[in-house]
Automatic annotation (TrEMBL), chain A:
The chain crosses the membrane at residues 20-41, 68-89, 110-134, 140-165, 177-198, 243-264, 284-306, 312-333, 345-362. InterPro entries: DUF6449 (IPR045611). Residues 458-557 form the DUF6449 domain. It comes from [Ruminococcus] torques ATCC 27756. This is DUF6449 domain-containing protein. The keyword Cell membrane does not apply. Pfam families: DUF6449.
TrEMBL record, chain B:
This is ABC transporter domain-containing protein. Residues 2-227 form the ABC transporter domain. PROSITE patterns: ABC_TRANSPORTER_2. The keyword Nucleotide-binding applies. It comes from [Ruminococcus] torques CAG:61. Keywords: ATP-binding, Nucleotide-binding, Transport. CDD domains: ABC_DR_subfamily_A.
């Protein structure tokens, strides 16, 4: 019998036999952690005050938040440690040697497991301490930050264990190191693959799907699969504070370890050299792996090549399942003559895929025409596509959790009838997919202006929520909103101005026909008064007018917000550049909301699209009171040039003929400059005509036809609009206006 | 004592052990012979607790061996392809065996490696196949276990080393409680070394007997009986395993002791009669043929 002292010696021996791995992990971690940190901090700035700004993200040098290379390295080390520790099971002579020793299986497991763990832990902990020392030398380190670094190290270790245990678990199921490696890859992503497959198939096959951000399968897929969880744990700053994620990781780690130990106790020694360890597993694994993988591959290939329709998904899936079955059989037997050995399981897998795709293709479940029974619905909400740009809510930038996009109403019948008409449209072939498709007959008939896309959320009495996306009549939708907004509560919930805490508004900007925003110089009280006047107007306005009128101006608000440091792990303004997380100016510029951190540690952000209409009397009088008047016309002397883009319909109907005839300088770009023909569409009657106007007298004639081009309350999505692109003399700004 | 109780093991479609029942007594050299693929390695791996039988069990001194460290500590299994750690030298392997086998005789091992001219600091990977086998045998011999299971370990050893190893085994048997079990497909290799033999064929154990017992119970008789009538009477009175005729010279493999057979033939007035000893190989060919197995073609 081997004494306890000998166990320690055996672990030490195991580490010694894997000395190359100890050296590799030590050197690479040393380079990726303290050395990288030193180089990074040195190259960034030598100013201690600037360096202190790194305190918030310093712990990212421990887990990979600041370096994608460290994430990759930890993953590779976990693989290497796992495979090197348990590959003895896959070679007969090694297995005979180890299994012949006077040790129980779990004792042998513990020796290899612990030796592997130490191979990573010792250099990782040492490198963490060295990295903290680098921080201390640079004057960044505080006691609490050191604590944060050690907590981050804990998440790094958990992330390592996720891959390490996955690798060991795969090793227990397989009999060859190659299949152990492949098995690790499969187990690492399998739950995510399966969980995301059904929503993907729904999206591909059904016409009325609505993707809810962070749906239950989507959330589960992030927490049930080792690989996504591994990346999530390492790519986030202060990820140790995400209790749910840590719990999920711990549960997975424990489950994988327990399963590995149990499997090792019954691991058949004779399976060394076989692809899989247990007799019954080859057909089962083949079916389980090939089905989701084949469908996933088909969806992936389809999206890459941009094929439309579902026929390619079906063809590619069937092709992929046949190839996968053959490939898996080859991996099992490594003999082309044995490809048909597991033909029964191949038939099952191919049959399952065929049935699955048939269910989706012919909608056997009635997904597209499903509507919950009215009496079972507690509340309904609808969200036209246009709301995404028409309404900006402050919660989108302040809340850690995603805001519920739908404003749910108790007036079930109003929206229920609208949803019913949406289903009728689906039956007629009028769906969100076809609405914007240039290949549908609907659009060529110009029916598209009568429809809009709107998502629906049905909250059932049971609390469950059902989501669908329909094409609904523009007029019916406008009428429905008119009815719903008769209730003040609904209106307050719908319009973002009622979500704004006025005391947090630090500035108000106004845009009028000149578009360039002007910050209103108002006191806090004046701002509050102005916003109260705006609220009053929004409460009183007729919803029908929002659909038909063009706003004359727009407010933008800058709002202060104190972020919750512990839970604010999402950093939308960061991006990976050359493996390093850096401030990305391009992203910040493109993003419509600005965010910055001022001296008082407040975050500020801006929301816009608070439109002002002609009948907003309270707002307009308040603005006038403070000396601001909204300009409704562009002065001809401010314009440098104008380019008109007139739709094919307008040209056909000779809508602008009188105006064009009155211009002294109108020049048809299409006719004079063949290069501009790119503006033309293939269908001649949809061709857009382009005219350039340069004469000041023409600007005067045109000015009264120019309107702001805001997001529509309900965007018809039609293409038959006429636009004018106006270039101003001042700063040479160019803006687009509606031509009415 | 090792007891094998209806051991059964199947790999995929191959029935490697077919309900084997046998007893291997302590203190003697047991030879396990059989053709390639007969199931010798499988049986040894089951005895050493590496493989779990599908049915039956292996008892060593009354205790089951599988997952039983106290029993396994009495066994050292030497595989046909010995495993050494990458880049290890003899000393490193010796140290590891010392960790795993508390009764490891370091002094003996060091002296033996010296006598076998094995450089303790040379990497084992640079050794020849035969030298690796020598290292493996010395490690196993010095591990101090009661049972040493050698799976075709003697194959590849030169005759001098083989003889030296046999002497070492004999000395160990004299000095301590030691039972080597040696598998081979070469009968000649085991003939002058084993006390007891087990013959495996197609997963089945055809027989287990002590070598002396086998040699005493079967012998070869060469005789010439001039009277055909008497010759016929003699042939019908004895149990013939095998008969060959060359002119009037009869060569018979017979079951029975030397003296009994010689006195029996004398009663028929032979012109010439002589009892010759049988090799182990001849005995097994005769026995297995008598049992209905034509194993001549695959014994080598």
């Amino acid at each position: 019998m081997i004494s306890k002292i000998s166990y320690i010696k055996l672990i030490r021996e195991d580490i010694r036999h894997r000395g190359w791995l100890a050296a590799l992990s030590g050197v690479l971690l040393f380079l990726s952690m303290p050395v990288y940190t030193l180089i990074y901090l040195d190259s960034y700035s030598e100013d201690p005050e600037v360096l202190k700004e790194f305190a918030d993200t310093f712990s990212g040098f421990i887990n990979g938040y600041n370096s994608a290379f460290l994430i990759i390295l930890i993953g590779i080390l976990a693989f290497a440690v796992g495979i090197s520790g348990f590959q003895f099971m896959h070679k007969k002579e090694k297995l005979d040697f180890y299994h012949g020793l006077a040790l129980k299986r779990h004792q042998l497991f513990a020796i290899s497991y612990l030796a592997g763990l130490f191979l990573f832990l010792i250099p990782y902990i040492v490198c963490t301490v060295l990295t903290i020392l680098v921080g201390a030398v640079k004057g960044i380190m505080t006691l609490s930050l050191a604590g944060e670094c050690f907590l981050t190290m804990g998440t790094g270790i958990l992330a390592f264990l996720l891959i390490y245990h996955t690798c060991i678990f795969a090793g227990m199921l397989t009999g060859r190191s190659v299949t152990m490696f492949l098995g690790t890859l499969v187990i690492g992503v399998y739950p995510s693959l399966v969980l995301t497959l059904l929503p993907s198939l729904r999206d591909a096959f059904f016409q009325t799907t609505y993707n809810v951000h962070d749906s239950i399968p989507e959330k589960l897929s992030e927490y049930l699969s080792p690989f996504p969880l591994f990346i999530r744990m390492l790519e986030q700053n202060n990820s140790y504070s995400n209790v749910f994620m840590i719990t999920a990781a711990l549960v997975l780690i424990v489950l994988l370890l327990a399963a590995s130990i149990m499997l090792y106790r019954i691991y058949p020694s004779e399976s060394a050299g076989n692809a899989l360890a247990f007799k019954f597993t080859p057909p089962v694994f083949k079916v389980l792996i090939s089905i989701p993988t084949a469908v996933f591959i088909s969806l992936l290939v389809k999206s890459f090549i941009g094929a439309s329709g579902t026929k390619w998904i079906i063809i590619l899936s069937m092709l992929a399942i046949v190839l996968l079955c053959g490939l898996i059989e080859f991996i099992y037997w490594q003999d082309l003559k044995m490809l048909l050995k597991g033909w029964r399981s191949s038939v099952i897998a191919i049959g399952f895929v065929a049935v699955l795709l048939a269910v989706f293709q012919f909608d056997f479940t009635g997904y597209d025409t499903y509507l919950p029974k009215e009496k079972k619905i507690a509340r309904i909400g609808t969200l036209p596509d246009s709301f995404a740009s028409y309404f900006w809510y402050p919660e989108d930038y302040t809340s850690e959790d995603d805001r519920e996009s739908f404003v749910l109403s108790d007036d079930v019948d109003v929206l229920y009838n609208l949803a019913q008409s949406g289903i009728e449209n689906v039956k007629k072939g009028i769906t969100p997919n076809t609405l914007y498709s240039s290949q549908t007959s609907m659009q060529t008939d110009k029916d598209s202006d009568n429809y809009i896309c709107a998502a629906f959320c049905f909250e059932l009495e049971s609390g469950k929520k059902v989501y669908r996306n329909y094409c609904v009549s523009y007029n019916e939708t406008l009428e429905a909103f008119t009815k719903l907004c008769q209730k003040e509560d609904y209106r307050k919930e719908l319009f973002p101005i009622f979500h704004v805490e006025k005391e947090n508004v630090s500035s108000v900007s106004l845009q009028d026909i000149y578009i360039t925003p002007e910050e209103l110089l108002l006191t806090a009280e004046q701002r509050t008064e102005l916003l109260s006047a705006y609220e009053k107007d929004v409460l009183n306005t007729d919803i029908r007018k929002l659909g038909s009128e063009v706003p004359i101006g727009e407010f933008s608000l800058t709002i202060r917000h104190v972020p919750n440091k512990e839970t604010n792990t999402n950093q939308p303004f960061h991006s990976w550049v050359n493996g390093t997380r850096e401030w990305n100016a391009a992203v910040n510029t493109a993003f419509p909301v600005t965010s910055s951190e001022d001296e008082t540690n407040y975050k500020t952000f801006s929301i816009g699209s608070l439109y002002i209409y002609e009948d907003y009397e309270n707002t307009l009088s308040c603005l006038e009171k403070y000396g601001y008047k909204i300009k409704r016309l562009i002065r001809a002397e401010d314009i440098d040039s104008v380019t008109l883009y007139l739709s094919g319909d307008s040209m056909k109907n000779k809508k602008w003929n009188d105006l064009l005839a009155s211009f002294s300088s109108a020049k048809d770009e299409n006719n004079s400059d063949p290069d501009k023909a790119a503006y033309e569409q293939s269908d001649e009657k949809d061709a857009t005509s382009m005219f350039t106007i340069t004469a000041p007298e023409d600007f005067r004639l045109l000015a009264e036809h120019l309107y702001l081009n805001p997001s529509d309350f309900l965007d018809r999505g039609g293409t038959s609009r006429d636009y004018a692109e106006v270039t101003f003399k001042k700063e040479n700004n160019t803006f687009t206006y509606l031509l009415k | 004592m090792i007891e094998l109780k209806t051991l059964d093991k199947t790999f995929q479609m191959i029935h490697a052990s077919d309900h084997i029942t046998a007893t291997i007594p302590d203190g003697m050299v047991f030879g396990l012979i059989g053709s390639n693929g007969a199931g010798k390695s499988t049986l040894l791996r089951m005895i050493s607790g590496i493989l779990k039988p599908d049915e039956g069990e292996v008892l060593i001194d009354g205790e089951s061996v599988f997952e039983n460290p106290s029993v396994k500590s009495q066994i050292c299994f030497l595989s046909d392809t010995p495993y050494f750690f990458p880049n290890a030298d003899i000393q490193q392997m010796r140290n590891y065996y010392m960790l795993c086998y508390p009764s490891f005789n370091r002094k003996l091992f060091d002296s033996l490696t010296d006598r076998f001219n094995l450089d303790p600091k040379r990497k084992i990977s640079s050794f020849s196949k035969g030298m690796k086998k020598q290292v493996s045998i010395l490690l196993g011999l010095c591990s101090g276990t009661k049972y040493l299971l050698c799976d075709e370990t003697f194959d590849g050893l030169d005759p001098v080393v083989r003889q030296a190893v046999k002497s070492l085994f004999a000395a160990e048997i004299l000095n301590r409680d030691f039972t080597p079990i040696i598998s081979s497909h070469n009968l000649r290799e085991l003939e002058d070394f084993c006390d007891s033999i087990g013959l495996l064929h197609q997963g089945q154990l055809l027989l287990t007997q002590s070598l002396d017992q086998i040699k005493c119970s079967v012998c070869k008789l060469q005789c010439v009986i001039s009277d055909p009538h008497k010759e016929q009477q003699f042939l019908s009175s004895i149990k013939i395993l095998k008969m060959e005729r060359s002119g009037s010279l009869l060569t018979l493999t017979l079951r029975g002791s030397h003296s009994d057979i010689l006195s029996a033939v004398q009663t028929y007035d032979p012109v010439f009669a002589e009892v010759l000893p049988l090799t182990l190989e001849e005995i097994f060919i005769s026995e297995t043929e008598a049992a209905g197995y034509d194993i001549k073609d695959f014994l080598y």
